[in-house]
Structure prediction request, 216 residues.
Amino acid sequence: MNIAIIGAGNVGGALGGSWARAGHRISFGVRDPAAEKTRALLASAGASTSAALPAEAARGAEVVVLATPWDATEAALAAAGDLHGKVLVDCTNPLKFTPGVGLELALGFNESGGERVAGWAAGARVVKAFNTYGWENFANPRYPNAAELKPVMFLAGDAAAAKATVGQLATDIGFEPFDAGALRAARELEPLALIWIRRAFSGARNPHFTWARLTR
Ligand SMILES: NC(=O)c1ccc[n+]([C@@H]2O[C@H](COP(=O)([O-])OP(=O)(O)OC[C@H]3O[C@@H](n4cnc5c(N)ncnc54)[C@H](OP(=O)(O)O)[C@@H]3O)[C@@H](O)[C@H]2O)c1
Prediction:
């Protein structure tokens, strides 16, 4: 599959490397395709990866992945051009830093970042995913103590076919898709990211953990 990743930082770089190893073609949509850090990323991510300006990267892709800081997301989407009909994977979290409180959601309860993204990206089929864990788990989703269990990847979106596509992309890099419901359920997935962040960066500071589903 041709995948454009807008934002080639921690999340974009980790997902791009993992999907490239799984056989997908990756075009990173970046503001400076010739930058040294972009060249270093391409060298480590492999031959099936390239970099271009966001609109050029998105043009040739069936799936566009959004991995930008929340404050930059509206502008990044505008720079990505027409996304009508494309699957748009929203990995962002609408976080803000409040002195005395720390990281918290910039919006919630009656809206979500995922829904706001859908409003900004006319005609795109938005799926919220890859937002509830740190990038370390996208780079390597293998856990020696988990036996047969796979980490789950929560998905929220209104278009069933788009959600199935993103579920397959999650499966391709070692996750078990978990359908959290319509895009509105991004209101539940975004606070879930905060639970992960607080746990990962307190105490022993271990970002190498995810949620899994136990059933009987
Ligand atoms: N960090 C995590 O583990 C994690 C996990 C799940 C979800 N998230 C969410 O994922 C998003 C990205 O996080 P991150 O840690 O990957 O951030 P990051 O390392 O800071 O990378 C952000 C990327 O976005 C690019 N960017 C910024 N403004 C842009 C614009 N206007 N147009 C195009 N690209 C732009 C930056 O490019 P330049 O180099 O040009 O500035 C950079 O490559 C955030 O919303 C975060 O909340 C993060």
